[in-house]
């Protein structure tokens, strides 16, 4: 960071500005302001690269500005406001124990299901009643890695904009469209109407993911970590599909299951297409 | 639990017995006693089913004894000592915030690499310098689900017997052999000597897991979460293999990467065999 910015470093962890950032750890404040908190250099880097116009402010300690000079450079090039802050100020702002000296505030501008469907997606994942922030974030990261076209999240799932979910996505939140607040039944109907098959993951299903055609457009539907999909939602999907368990494990965790499904699909679609 | 046991319920969270269980949260005490702590009904159930003779004691609250009567029944049938304890006693013993009213102490009797190799394994995973307990446990769970023959863990990785790792395995620690304390270089040599190809996972590798023959016996070698495998260890493996990233994610997390590799292998070996 240019040295001429240093005199303006934020030093008071109890200032109104700091309190306003800290408050974004609460869902109510994110809803009221439409703003979210992105912590750590990796998240901030991906935010600037892929959602630069949404950045409101970047906060960085002097040490982190040296260490992650590339990210600060990207931020300044993108015209972001970059503020130097002391370690106590960063710590007061952050939800994470160790935000690595850098965080950003951004406008949260989620895409709509209509815009996702209009783009003719071939691979989607829909999370419904997913409650664990780490799981939700890891599903988004896995969907990104597998080249999925978007992630859909039901209105009764964990809040995707919570700092813990944002951290778990490792920047993937800004790499692909993540649609939130969806009604699950209406979404299943909309997917079917657009020729996208809906595949419910269900441990006890008779068919495995090796028994279904994954080359055509489809959406994996993932239920709650503990109890899976409610029967009526599983029944509303075009097929119920199990991941084979070859050993003695009872199940895979949600993020692992989603990643295996999405990678199997990506492999099939690339081989088939 | 039979009502005649209730009069002997443990009620003092500061008793020597409780302190001795609590102390198993520390590595030094696990090493000194050769005992480990297994928390929650799922872990205790799998411990009793698959490693019954190693169980030293089972502790359960009255509420959990009603709720998980099947596990208590299994424990009594297996001849385990089952002790009723109050909620404060369970809370004092446990490492977890919520052990769901049940935990067990067991002897830890890990298998040796020699015994694993003597069984003619076809699919293995070796973790080296893995530091996060949740990652390590999830790799063990994924290896179990994928039907791997064993998990190998280097001496510079997280302690597999720590309560957090044990919890993350969701019982899989007792489903397949988990060999610990291994020297990585010596293990790679031993695997090669037994005709087991060693495949280093490496983000930048030229070959992907779709370019290698996975039908023959092999071991996936997973490095540290942040920096991967040291170059000299990657070079010592028979091949360096990348998981293809189809989107914009920089990488997958360790547990996801291991699970994808192991499932791809399991699918290939079952199709090929």
Automatic annotation (TrEMBL), chains A, B:
Which InterPro entries does the protein's record reference? Alpha/beta_knot_MTases, MRM3-like_sub_bind, Ribosomal_eL30-like_sf, rRNA_Methyltransferase, SpoU_MeTrfase, SpoU_subst-bd, tRNA_m1G_MTases_N
Tell me yes or no: is Transport among this UniProt entry's keywords: no
- Record-annotated RNA 2-O ribose methyltransferase substrate binding domain positions: 37-112
SUPFAM superfamilies linked to this entry: alpha/beta knot, L30e-like
Gene3D superfamilies according to UniProt: 3.30.1330.30, 3.40.1280.10
One Pfam annotation, family name? MRM3-like_sub_bind
Asked if the Swiss-Prot or TrEMBL record annotates the protein with the keyword Methyltransferase, the reply is: yes
GO molecular function list: methyltransferase activity
Q: Tell me, what is an example of a GO biological process annotation in this record?
A: methylation
The entry's keywords = Methyltransferase, Transferase
For this chain, the family text in UniProt reads: Belongs to the class IV-like SAM-binding methyltransferase superfamily. RNA methyltransferase TrmH family.
Q: What protein name applies here? A: RNA methyltransferase
């Amino acid at each position: 960071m240019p040295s001429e910015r240093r005199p303006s470093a934020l030093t008071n962890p109890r200032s109104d500005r700091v309190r306003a950032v800290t408050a974004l750890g609460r869902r109510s404040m994110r809803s009221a302001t439409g703003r979210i908190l992105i912590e750590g250099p990796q998240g901030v880097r991906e935010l600037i690269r892929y959602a630069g116009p949404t950045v409101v402010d970047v906060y960085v300690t002097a040490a982190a500005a040296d260490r992650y000079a590339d990210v600060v450079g990207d931020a300044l090039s993108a015209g972001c406001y970059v503020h130097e802050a002391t370690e106590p100020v960063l710590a007061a702002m952050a939800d994470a124990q160790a935000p690595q000296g850098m965080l950003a505030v951004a406008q949260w501008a989620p895409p709509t299901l209509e815009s996702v469907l209009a783009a003719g997606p071939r691979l989607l994942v829909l999370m419904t009643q997913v409650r664990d922030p780490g799981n939700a974030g890891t599903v988004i990261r896995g969907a990104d890695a597998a080249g999925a076209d978007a992630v859909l999240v039901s209105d009764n799932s964990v809040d995707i904009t919570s700092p813990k979910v944002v951290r778990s996505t490792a920047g993937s939140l800004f790499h692909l469209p993540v649609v939130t607040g969806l009604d699950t039944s209406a979404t299943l109907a909309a997917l079917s109407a657009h020729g996208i098959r809906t595949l419910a993951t269900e441990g006890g299903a008779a068919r495995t993911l090796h028994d279904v055609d994954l080359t055509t457009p489809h959406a994996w539907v993932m239920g709650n970590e503990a109890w899976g999909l409610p029967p009526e939602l599983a029944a509303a999907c075009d097929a119920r599909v199990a991941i084979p368990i070859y050993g003695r494990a009872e199940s895979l965790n949600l993020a692992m299951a989603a990643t295996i499904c999405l990678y199997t699909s990506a492999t099939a679609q690339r081989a088939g297409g």
